[in-house]
Design goal:
Elements: E1 2-4, H1 11-15, E2 29-43, H2 44-47, E3 59-60, E4 63-75, E5 81-93, E6 96-106, H3 109-119, E7 123-132, E8 139-145, E9 148-155, E10 166-176, E11 184-197, E12 202-204, H4 213-226, E13 230-243, E14 247-251, E15 261-263, E16 272-277
Parallel strand pairs: 6-7
Antiparallel strand pairs: 1-7, 2-4, 2-13, 3-4, 4-5, 5-6, 7-8, 8-9, 9-12, 10-11, 10-16, 11-13, 11-14, 14-15
Length: 278
Amino acid sequence: DHDRRAEPATMADRRAGRGRARDEGPEGWSFRGSAHYQFHLVRSSVARQFVPPDLPLVELAGYTLGGFYYANYADSPAGRMDELVVLSGLVWNAPTSCAWASHVFVDRRSAVSHGRRVFGLPSRLSTIRQRRAVQGGGEVVAVESGGGPIVELRRKARPSALKGPKISFQLPSFSGRTKHKPDLLKYDLDLSATIQPCAGYEVSLPASRGSSKAGSALAAQVGSILSGKMLASLSFKNMSMHVKRPEVFAKNEKKGSAPIGVPKRRRAGSAKISSVQT
């Protein structure tokens, strides 16, 4: 069990280098730890409330693909850190598609500042608690932010002890369109991890009693995105991730082209698997 409370950096944190996100230079930032990626169906009408209007949704029969990414980083530019990223939909920018992060909850103040300032992410300072379930075993992850509880993730079984393949791949991602970074940004991340199917989390909304108005509204937003059917869940063990610096996208003005971005320096690439080890 662990409890990652949202706190300002202490003097000890600053001496240990955790008071602010480490700037690792022009090559980007590195993370190590484990993660859980869960896919949900999201109604397109819901996703459209959070995805920029000029980004086309990848959708079928009124639904797009969303979900969440929950990570426990043993090391990151902000030190030890937990993160929950809510993905409201899949957006298209030829020749690839990417999940759009509409809500980002982190428990390090420096990570909030870094996410907003560098990547244009909607990062929020949060408390993330992980504990064993009292009844039935398993675990519970509770997230609080904005003056109240946001969401609880519960599952009865822990991930299987069986090992999956070690996979390395590159994944393009989009961000921006916030008050901190109004432009649409594109960045690549290189990820290597042992990936395998695992038991999914049940998503539940905590009672709003005692929450602030802002906290209740935030919980309702997250609930509307994650209320759809769960499709699959994957665990990422022994994960190492390198996130490159974002680039500003410019509009493609070519006649007849879709109103989507192209990077100023190079075109976006599709997710590329570089190696698989069994």
